[in-house]
Amino acid sequence: MSVMELKEAKDKFIHTWGTLATQWGINRTMAQIHALLLLSSKSMNADEIMADLQISRGNVNMNLRDLMDWGLIYKQLLPGERKEYFIAEKDIWKVAKQIAKERRRREIGPLIEAMEDIKEGIQPDTAEKEEFLKIVNDISKVSVFADNTMTSLLKSDENWLINNFIKIFNK
Amino acid sequence: MSVMELKEAKDKFIHTWGTLATQWGINRTMAQIHALLLLSSKSMNADEIMADLQISRGNVNMNLRDLMDWGLIYKQLLPGERKEYFIAEKDIWKVAKQIAKERRRREIGPLIEAMEDIKEGIQPDTAEKEEFLKIVNDISKVSVFADNTMTSLLKSDENWLINNFIKIFNK
DNA sequence: AAAAACTTTCAGAATATTTTGAAAATTCAA
DNA sequence: TTGAATTTTCAAAATATTCTGAAAGTTTTT
Question: Residue B122, class by beta-carbon neighbours within 10 Å (0-12 exposed, 13-18 middle, 19+ buried)?
């Protein structure tokens, strides 16, 4: 029953990963494909993923492309094979960095732009306008700060936070 | 046309806030109510919010409760008034901290729990199982690290990162 | 150049989430 | 108490998102 036990655990992992992902704005199937590839020592092609997760070809194709956009999986061309194979980044620290990087780009970037856009053309010539501009400016500042913090956390492995992490991670 | 200009900018702010929020897992109406209250110097009651955003009573009620759960707005009981009034936290730094705190709780917590749960009862007695456990353990470690990092960032205003931020924010 | 192998697209179907609004529950004043 | 004012709930409707699968597009082999 040992093999079955592992299979069950893997299924549970894939299912859980899919469920959790929806909590943080990623769709279930994309997360499940990611989980499947994370657990697979070999790279897989679209047909294998379709069969494994019981989902359509279109769905697999679209989510594989999204996962590549996120930088979480790579395309692998096997010699003598026409089909495209996919393999997940297995270094979890790289995976986490990549997710953080993408979320920064997708969540913080647009916020900064939007605030700049809203400020445009408004003069602080009344108390009401001044109050409004204060809020917009404060949001700008917090966003830029969050963006910079993320960037510096991600950029340098010399950073004390990262070092602190590596200590924990390697033990 | 100065008053109109401000009204337009506020509407744009509310609309934009709502659109961006959906990108990061918060529903549009909740974000719009939050934006409306952020921009309002007075506290507002459910009827006023309904009229302003043209949404139903049930929707307003549900999202006000969610916003209170997130710690982004407060209930205010005005003397001589039966209706409940709501006011948003205006200190954007506190708002950002609160959002980060909630997201940590909602996104990282369940991940840590899930990984612990999956590990349960699996012995590393084959290479395959060992491989599987390595991934699960690595995700655990990254999650715990992210959780701790967030916590320490949020907990102490003595933290260098926060100080660094305050310098930027106050200038 | 044709055909086979494979990938991508996209309109409609299925599913999931959000919203409505009226009924039920609660609170408060008289 | 009673009943008017207000808030909460929740089933059904509206809306938004995701998924399917067949058709169109692309690449490679023969």
Answer: middle
Query: Which residue do the tokens 């953080």 mark?
Result: A100
Tell me which nucleotides of strand D come within 7 A of a protein CB: 5-11, 17-23, 28-29
Q: How many other CB atoms are found less than 10 A from the CB of residue A166?
A: 13
Contact state of A2 with B126 under an 8 Å Cβ cutoff: yes
CA–CA separation, A50 vs B54, rounded Å?
Answer: 44
Nucleotide minimizing C1' to CA distance for residue B59: C19
pLDDT tens per residue across span B51-79: 999 999 999 999 999 999 999 999 999 99
Query: What amino acid occupies position A69?
Result: D
**Burial of A19 by CB count in 10 Å (0-12 exposed, 13-18 middle, 19+ buried)?**
middle
Local structure of residue A41 (DSSP, 8 states): S
Round to whole Å and give the CA distance between B20 and B31. Answer: 9
Query: Can you read off the two tokens belonging to residue A39?
Result: 């657990």
Beta bridge partners of B76: B85
Residue A2 structure tokens:
């040992």
Please report the pLDDT score of residue A5 as a whole number: 87
Query: Residue B39 CA to nucleotide D5 C1', Å?
Result: 28
Q: How far apart are CA A53 and CA A60, in angstroms?
A: 9
Q: Are A10 and A37 in contact (CB under 8 A)?
A: no
Q: Nearest Cβ partner of A168 from B24, B145, B169?
A: B145
